[in-house]
Amino acid sequence: MATSEQAIARYEADKAEQLEDLKTLVRIPSVSFPGFDAARVRESAEGVATLLRARGFENVQLLEVPGAHPYVFGEWMKAPGKPTLLLYAHHDVQPAGDETKWNTPPFTPTVMADGRMYGRGAADDKAGVVVHTAALKAWLGAGAPPVNLKIVVEGEEEAGSDHLGEFLRTYKKLVQADAIVLTDTGNFETGLPSITTALRGIVVVNVEVRALKQSLHSGMWGGPVPDVTMALVRMLASTTNPDGSIAIPGMRDKVRPLTDAERADIQGLPTDDATFRRQAGMLDGVQLLGGRAPWEQNWRQPSISINAIQASSRKDARNVINESAWARVGIRLVPDMDREEIAGLLVEHLRRVAPWGVEVSVDVEGTAGWWYTDPAHPAFQAGKRALEKGYGEKAVFIGCGGSIPFVEPFSKELGGVPALLVGVEDPYTNAHSENESVSLDELARATRSAIYLYEELAAAVAKR
After folding, report:
1. Choosing from 92, 227, 425, 456, which is the catalytic residue?
2. pLDDT tens digit string along 22-39?
3. Phi and psi (nearest 5°) for 144?
4. Are 128 and 223 part of one and the same domain?
5. What is the DSSP letter of 225?
6. Which of 75, 160, 174, 206 is deepest in the core (most CB within 10 A)?
7. Do residue 87 and residue 13 come from a single domain?
8. 408: pLDDT confidence band, cut at 50, 70 and 90?
9. Looking at residues 7-15, what average pLDDT do you find?
């Protein structure tokens, strides 16, 4: 029977191949947003399918649901009596953004002297794909993995996973497993292995304010005619207290307090306010908000953000009173906030505080629920052991201030099996921003951890 150490040795011998696999995927601009070329996302799915076959997965196929970019499925089911792990990653990416701010072409994977490879999707989440493929190849090179494996690589995660629920219901029997390993999160610090056990949810609304049939000359009409941009700014400002916390009545009534153990975990992290400020890129003199430790504030407290606002534009700025003003507003949710209730409270508040009789329209763009899991399950302890072997450092449990829409549907549709969220990103990855990159050392450590994880979970997770 093969051992994890034999598989690790096989991986070390083939490590350069993994980097080339990642470069091949990054070269495909698989942006899943509306308005981008859907053919490139399909090309990416086909490229992932080719890679899965080449690295040992069987029954590889593109799985389709109407209106969705293709998913890729594969499996290795030759460990009778052993549990089955469902591996997850996604092959779609964010748009490049402002290409003039990239130091290298966004879809030309480039290894730099800092030990990182730059390119859109290099970390989020094409690195997650090659972690899984390299781990299986390493085990097969040593003999065979000690568990059964299934893999789903999604094609629309960055666009919101709108069809994931339908996908899971359609293919529920095919993807059924005893545990899930979702490789699309990050580590608290480079080289510090981390398992994410809490995610914030999200509610997004679009609010538009109108008062005129057309824009007016601000000198000829300014004064008696309400300025809709000013009205919108007053409305948005009313949503927060001076410390930045949400001021909307009823919004914080159901926030779950931290347990003593959770607070101790956060306080024990190797960080401080200065590190948080540096990683966030905060300017000198700008205050931290909330009155709590920044990571507690980020992971377990709700927040509100104005993602975009528009009345006119800097390019077209004129001396006018604009006829309309618009903003996109997002609220991050934590346990035990109900997303439908929060959406209703936000819409109601914006309508109620609108001044001067302006016309207000608010529509809910989308919602995603928060997710929380208890790390006491043996699968999480197995995950910690595997990460500690792969990284050579003590692993930590962390939260995530962001929302990952696929986690809640996966956990729900597969009957609540344990879901381990791990990944390759670090605080310097710049996921979704310009100059996205992955640390090649982190990629190797994550892959070694995946190899150990199969062995640890084989013993810790019972076959259902």
Report:
1. 92
2. 999 999 999 999 999 999
3. -165, 150
4. no
5. B
6. 75
7. yes
8. confident
9. 96
Q: Are residues 81 and 178 in the same domain?
A: yes
Residue 407 lies in a domain: yes
Q: Which two tokens stand for residue 207?
A: 């609010």
pLDDT of 405 strictly over 80: no
The Cα 418–Cα 456 span in angstroms is 14
Looking at residue 464, its pLDDT comes to 64
Handedness of CA 349, 333, 161, 119 (dihedral sign): positive
Q: Which of 316, 343, 368 is the last residue of a domain?
A: 368
Give the pairing type, strands 396-400 and 71-76.
unpaired
Res. 261: pLDDT tops 90: no
CB atoms within 10 A of CB 417: 20
Compute the CA torsion angle 373, 376, 379, 380 (nearest 10 deg).
70
Q: Are residues 107 and 141 in the same domain?
A: yes
Please give the Cα distance from 326 to 319 (Å, whole number): 19
Select from 456, 453, 458 the least CA-distant residue to 422.
453
In a domain, 289, yes or no: no
CA distance 2 to 143: 5
Residue 131: partners with Cβ closer than 8 Å, 6 or more residues away: 89, 183, 424, 443, 446, 447, 450
Task: Encode 132-145: b = buried (16+ Cβ within 10 Å), e = exposed.
Answer: bbbbbbbbbbbeeb
- Which of the residues 21, 124, 156, 157 is marked catalytic? 157
Task: Quote helix, strand, coil % in the chain, to nearest 5.
Answer: 35, 25, 40
* Residue 157 annotated among the catalytic residues of the structure: yes
CATH of the domain at 68: 3.40.630.10
Q: How many domains does the chain have?
A: 2
Q: State whether 398 and 426 are in the same domain.
A: yes
pLDDT of residue 385: 97
Is residue 285 in a domain?
A: no
The angle at the Cα of 315, spanning 310 to 318, to the nearest 5 degrees, equals 80
Summarised one tens digit per residue, pLDDT across range 90-114 is 999 999 999 999 999 999 999 999 9
Choosing from 337, 368, 399, the residue where a domain stops is 368
Instruction: Give the whole-angstrom CA distance, residue 163 versus residue 88.
Output: 15
Mean pLDDT score of the chain = 95
Q: Is 402 a domain residue?
A: yes
Indicate if 359 and 386 belong to the same structural domain: no
pLDDT at position 411: 80
DSSP 256: P
Radius of gyration of the chain (CA): 24
Under 8 Å CB-to-CB from 49, ≥6 apart: which residues? 60, 61, 62, 72, 74
The domain containing residue 362 runs over which residues?
Answer: 201-266+299-368
Output the domain CATH number for residue 304.
3.30.70.360
